[in-house]
Amino acid sequence: MPTDGVPGIVIVLIAGGEPVWSGAFGLADVATRRPMTADALFRVESISKPVTAWGAMRLAESGRLDLDSPIRDCLKRWHPPEDAEPITPRALLGHTAGIGLGDYTARYSPDAPVPELPEHIAQDFALIGAPGARFAYSDTGYTLLELVIEDCTGEDFGALMASEVLAPLGMERASFDWTGATMPMGHDLRGRPVAPYVYPGRASGGLHATAADLARFASAGMTGADQEVISTEGLATLHQKVVETGGLYGVAAEGYGLGHFTETLSDGRAAVWHGGQGYGWMSHMHLVPETGDGIVILANSQRAWPLFAAILRDWSESLGVAPVGMARVLWAERAARVAIALGLVVAVFGLWNAYRGARRRPLIRGVAGGVGAALILWPLWAASQDYLFVFSILPGLWPWLGAASAGAGAGLAAMALGPE
Predict the structure, then answer these.
(1) In angstroms, rounded to a whole number, what is the distance separating the alpha carbons of residues 257 and 263?
(2) What is the pTM of this model?
(3) I want to staple 166 with a disulfide (CB 3.0 to 4.6 A). Which of 65, 171, 182, 202 is the partner?
């Protein structure tokens, strides 16, 4: 936690289908030194998606939502363009609708006016591929699913989820609606405090819950769990892989089901999981339905990915399996340390080469100058950005990586400009 600047974290371990241990570490608020507590209420961000998937399956099994009918059949307040005609709720649940990620920076103060759901979707909707063609993770797709659910049932999404999923599963403090309850202070990638906020949509990342709430949800997803929200067949459908992930997502997961990432552990058991990253908050839930093993991790910081990866690596070891896919985030740290060392070597080599005035061909000078400029400029550009993927996976190392890159660039620039 100190290495990566993560102020607070809560963990719950699940074994035999039941929570068996919980722990709270660090601070809920750095400014006031308020300690973190196990019952703290968090923004769980994209863990909202598997909970939403349970709600959709509940509605499907009770005849209030057809997962395989075009969403046009229900929509009343907004309609997608004609080339989105084949999109179904099932495609939205599995991120195969061909819809772009969406504007994840669309955040509003709980006291400020928030755009109506149809208005927000109209601004955010963009097709980036043919529906059904491939996996494309989409917050907008789940926001659209929220609109579909509301228009199909005639009920408010938050109230419907509370009565159909959250309350029956005993998720006592969980809510898709802003309640004004006291929460830990979130912290962004630079460690700055983050004020409370809400999204225009709730299905994608609007759930607030405690670690105990999510542990109850995870326990309900185990094989043979005593729950009556969805059928055994419905649960198996949610956990069944429907598409390969690929790309960066493919590093951590083999596929995606309906609201759940999927992977096969090294001993052949199936595991499902979901994480969440929002402005100032991070979350993770991993479960092995067959044996009832699981873990829930919540942090009030956007710098927690390496910490989560280290915890998941050790949790995997406790289960007797190779590290789960999300633990591969630690590979980036190893690669970054190698790159930092290499950058220092290049910096020393370039400066020494320039100092001794070695003869260099014009082509070598040109290449060294161009590469050197790029190595100097990219850290400056990165430092001006609000968010880059590298910030999340290397919160403590990326400044060192940037400095090593700039040093290497300076060495190459000296080679290019130094006299022979």
Answers:
(1) 10
(2) 0.93
(3) 171
